[in-house]
Amino acid sequence: MHLAGDVGVQFECVCSQTHPGQTLWVVGSVPALGSWSLHAALQLETGPDTFPRWKSRDGVRVPRNQDVEFKFVIMSQNRDYVVWEQI
Length: 87
Description:
The chain contains no helices and 8 strands. By secondary structure, the protein is mainly β. The chain has a single domain (6-84), classed as Immunoglobulin-like, CATH 2.60.40.10. The strands form 2 sheets. A 6-stranded antiparallel sheet has the order 2-5-4-3-7-8, with no helix packed on it. Strands 1-6 form a two-stranded antiparallel ribbon. Strand 7 and strand 8 (82-84) form a beta hairpin.
């Protein structure tokens, strides 16, 4: 369901610092981005033909008139290794 006050966004990032078994995620201040919870973050995808470009599979809906903060995070498959984007 799309709410009138929402807007669709797609995330795309160039990140070559990942290693096999690691993926890139987006976590942020709104529920669609996990409300800063790594367990609810949005996973990005890449592949042999697109690496190091990572992107969200589908767009996500975020509030149109609200500031949205987010960071990219590298995590291992079992999430025991985390590297936060530096500002």
